[in-house]
C-alpha cells in the first residue's frame, strides 16, 4: 500500500550460508549463539519430527532443518509479527531446500487440552521438542522495545507451562532440549517432575574462571534415570580472545551436534 511504513529487517546467513533468516532490525529479539547451541542438541540419524516452542523468527528450528536433512520441523510462536518473519525466511530462495520440511503454527505455547490440539499441537506427535524460553525475571531492567520485551519477559510458572506442553505433544521416549540461564535450573528440574527423567545439565562458561552464563538441558520423556551434571562447555579457550573454541564453532555453524552422554 502506498505510504505504508516499511518494517526494517535484515536477512542474515547462518551455518556459513546453509540457511538464511529474516529478522527485525533495531527491535525485537535477534537470534544468535543461544539459538545455534539449542539447535545443536538435536541429533538423529534418520527421520525426526521436531517442535520449536516459542520459535521467534525460527532460527533454532531452521538450524535443525538445515543440519538434519530428514528432520521435519514445526515452529510454534504466539507473536503474529515474528511468525511473519519466519514465513519470509521460508520464502527465500536460499531456503528452498528446507522450506518444504518446515511448518508454522501461530499459538501460545501454554495452551492446554482441546485449545492446544485445536491450534495444531496434538498429543504424542514429536520426537524432539526444543525451547529457548524468555529469561528476564521481574527484577531485571525492562526494555522499551515491546517486541523484545515479549520475547524476554519471564512470567511465574513459565517453565511449568512450557514443559507441560512439551510432555503432552512428545512421543514416549522423546527428548526435550532447552537453553536457559543458570538461575533457572531449580525451576526446570521441578517442572520436569515425573514427565521427564535422565536430565543432563551442561553449564556454559565464557572462559575458564568465569561464572556460567547459560545452561543446556536435555531430558527424556518417561525416563527414570537420574540427573547428570556434565562437563562445562567453554566458549573461548584463549582468555585474551573472543574467538570461539573449535568445538563451539562447530556447534555454532552446524558442523556438529552436542550429543547426550
TrEMBL record:
Residues 37-183 form the Methyltransferase small domain. Gene3D superfamilies: Vaccinia Virus protein VP39. It comes from Ciceribacter naphthalenivorans. GO terms for biological process: methylation. One of its GO terms (molecular function) is N-methyltransferase activity. Keywords: Methyltransferase, S-adenosyl-L-methionine, Transferase. PROSITE patterns: N6_MTASE (PS00092). This is Methyltransferase.
Amino acid at each position: 500500500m502506498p505510504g505504508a511504513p516499511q518494517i526494517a529487517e535484515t536477512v542474515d546467513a547462518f551455518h556459513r550460508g546453509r540457511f538464511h533468516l529474516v529478522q527485525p532490525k533495531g527491535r525485537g529479539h535477534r537470534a544468535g549463539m543461544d539459538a545455534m547451541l539449542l539447535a545443536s542438541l538435536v541429533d538423529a540419524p534418520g527421520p525426526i519430527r521436531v517442535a520449536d516452542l516459542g520459535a521467534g523468527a525460527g532460527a533454532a528450528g531452521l538450524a535443525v532443518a538445515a543440519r538434519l536433512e530428514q528432520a521435519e520441523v514445526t515452529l510454534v510462536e504466539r507473536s503474529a509479527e515474528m511468525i511473519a518473519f519466519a514465513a519470509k525466511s521460508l520464502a527465500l530462495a536460499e531456503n528452498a531446500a528446507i522450506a518444504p520440511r518446515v511448518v508454522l503454527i501461530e499459538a501460545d505455547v501454554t495452551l492446554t487440552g482441546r485449545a492446544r490440539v485445536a491450534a495444531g499441537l496434538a498429543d504424542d506427535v514429536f520426537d524432539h521438542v526444543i525451547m529457548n524460553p524468555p529469561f528476564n525475571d521481574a527484577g531485571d531492567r525492562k526494555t522499551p522495545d515491546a517486541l523484545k520485551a515479549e520475547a524476554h519477559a519471564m512470567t511465574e510458572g513459565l517453565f511449568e507451562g512450557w514443559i507441560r506442553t512439551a510432555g503432552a505433544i512428545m512421543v514416549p521416549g522423546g527428548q526435550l532440549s532447552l537453553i536457559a540461564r543458570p538461575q533457572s535450573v531449580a525451576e526446570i528440574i521441578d517442572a520436569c517432575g515425573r514427565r521427564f527423567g535422565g536430565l543432563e545439565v551442561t553449564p556454559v562458561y565464557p572462559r575458564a574462571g568465569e561464572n556460567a552464563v547459560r545452561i543446556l538441558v536435555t531430558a527424556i520423556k518417561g525416563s527414570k534415570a537420574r540427573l547428570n551434571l556434565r562437563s562445562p562447555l567453554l566458549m573461548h579457550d584463549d582468555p585474551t580472545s573472543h574467538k570461539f573454541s573449535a568445538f563451539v564453532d562447530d556447534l555454532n555453524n552446524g558442523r556438529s551436534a552436542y550429543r547426550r552422554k
